[in-house]
Amino acid sequence: MILSSEEVRKLIEEKKMVEGFIDLDKQLQQSGIDLSLEKVYELDGKGVIDFENKERSFPSANEMEFNENDLIHLKKGCYKVRFNETVKIPAEIAAIARSRSSLLRMGCTVETALWDPGFEGKSESLLIVSNEKGIELKRNARIIQLIFFRLSSEAGKLYDGIHKNIK
User: Which domains, and CATH codes, for the chain?
Assistant: First the structure.
């Protein structure tokens, strides 16, 4: 079951499920909350992934600068983005995100993984610019909508990966 805005607000107020938002009333949507852009990184190098994560490595990433108008121009390509908001997913909740439709209309998507029960911290996602002319994003732009699902019961195992508690 997807949680309504009223349920999301209650979990934010009671369990601090999302913190660091800019304007809760503006970011809270009918069935989720918009997350906003804090940083953009250009990937530099390759990554490696394997079954056991023993050989896993991530490419280095160089933080890009916003201009004096708090805008950043992104050419066609892929980028790592970081959100302003910190999330704390309760044991009975999981979340997924979808690109805001405004981004899609510009030729841009944000790819995300599942937010598992027990995940805490700042999240990062992959922003893909397909528009040949590129796009411009303003610092704090709302770029994804995080949608929360209630599980049939509390998760028996909570997220405890390397990305937990990133600040």
Answer: 5-44+61-150 (2.70.40.10)
